[in-house]
TrEMBL record:
SUPFAM superfamilies: NAD(P)-linked oxidoreductase (SSF51430). Residues 15-314 form the NADP-dependent oxidoreductase domain. InterPro entries: K_chnl_volt-dep_bsu_KCNAB-rel, NAD(P)_OxRdtase_dom_sf, NADP_OxRdtase_dom. Pfam families: Aldo_ket_red. This is Predicted oxidoreductase. Gene3D superfamilies: NADP-dependent oxidoreductase domain. The keyword RNA-binding does not apply. GO terms for molecular function: oxidoreductase activity. Belongs to the shaker potassium channel beta subunit family. It comes from Agreia pratensis.
Length: 334
């Protein structure tokens, strides 16, 4: 496993982060989830990412139980706040001081830890003054409940405003967690340059485009049974943007590139996001330990300019690049 600094901080994270969105507490039985975490640890992964909203707090509990016997100082544990949790009352959502301060305590209880290494604003809250949100984060850092603060899916303007306030309040934003893959490159034009200027790294989610870049979805074919595209708990909604014959036909053109490199298509996809110098880590989920064991082999892989050009040529115009797709909800979700 290779390690990279997260933003302009002294914190190092593993190039592959194990994440449990859509798996722990939901799609995957707890014993299998524990086996996946163990496989991640065995492979050298030290960085683990979750959120209070995943499976309505159940995912944090599963991860906390799976990690409880590990040396805490040897791990980087990340979680997030924003989406509705609990009974989903009017203050069980967003980035108000009330919700943040209550949420961090709940996350720490479920994760069985005194602190998280990174606490992230899961989206931008248009209904809370940014000053209120950043002051709450500053207080959490001073209380020792979070060592660092990050954001997720904030656009360049929001990152710049949040960074300025964090400096005034005596801490710094060090990361952003956006969707990023060969097919979804909307952060490249504005978010990445702004982050690089201000000292934030990207921790990217869905580097395999919800499984599409594994090549398992074939143009004109039935959806594979048990795949994310058939999961009505949330996975199907996320993946459907890529499930058209034009995209799937282009993705199949990546197979010979991966073959020439001795990589699986999933390994190629994960290695591709790690070529971006502003990416500190790629988030990887798993429903089976074997997926962990295979995908971690993308760490440390270098793709030369010729390979990157072949990938661009293969995918052509199906790549989504428009920065306008980096958006947070216009109102708080309920």
């Amino acid at each position: 496993m290779e390690f990279r600094y997260l933003g302009k901080s002294g914190l190092k994270v593993s190039e592959i982060t194990y994440g449990n969105w859509l798996t722990h507490g939901s799609q995957v039985e707890n014993d299998i989830a524990a086996q996946c975490v163990e496989a991640a640890l065995t492979a050298g992964i030290t960085t683990f990412d979750t959120a209070d909203a995943y499976a309505n707090t159940a995912a944090e509990k599963v991860l906390g139980k799976a990690l409880k016997h590990q040396r805490r100082e040897s791990l980087e544990i990340f979680t997030k706040v924003y989406w509705p949790t609990g009974p989903k009352g009017p203050n069980d959502v967003g980035l108000s001081r009330k919700h943040i301060m209550e949420s961090i305590d709940g996350s720490l209880r479920r994760l069985k830890t005194d602190y998280v290494d990174l606490y992230q604003a899961h989206r931008y809250d248009v209904e809370t003054p940014l000053e209120e949100t950043m002051q709450a984060f500053a207080d959490i850092v001073r209380q020792g409940k979070a060592l660092y603060i990050g954001v997720s899916e904030w656009n360049a303007e929001q990152i710049r405003a949040g960074h300025a306030l964090s400096k005034e309040l005596g801490f710094q934003l060090i990361s952003n967690q956006p969707q990023y893959s060969m097919l979804w490159r909307v952060i490249e034009d504005q978010v990445v340059p702004t982050s690089a200027e201000l000292g934030l790294s990207q921790i990217v989610w869905s580097p395999v485009a919800q499984g599409v870049l594994t090549g398992k979805y074939k143009p004109g074919a039935e959806l594979p049974p048990g795949s994310r595209a058939t999961d009505e708990k949330g996975g199907a909604d996320m993946v459907k943007r890529f499930l058209n014959d034009e995209v799937l036909t282009r993705v199949q053109l990546l197979q010979p590139i991966a073959h020439d490199l001795g990589l699986t298509m999933a390994q190629l996809a994960i290695a591709w996001v790690l070529q971006n110098p502003n990416v500190a880590s790629a988030l990887m989920g798993a429903s089976r330990p074997e997926q962990v064991e295979s995908n971690v082999k993308a760490a440390g892989v270098t793709l030369d300019e010729g390979i990157l050009a072949r990938i661009d040529e293969a995918l052509g115009s199906v790549v989504v690049r428009d920065a306008k797709h980096t958006v947070s909800p216009e109102t708080r979700p309920v």
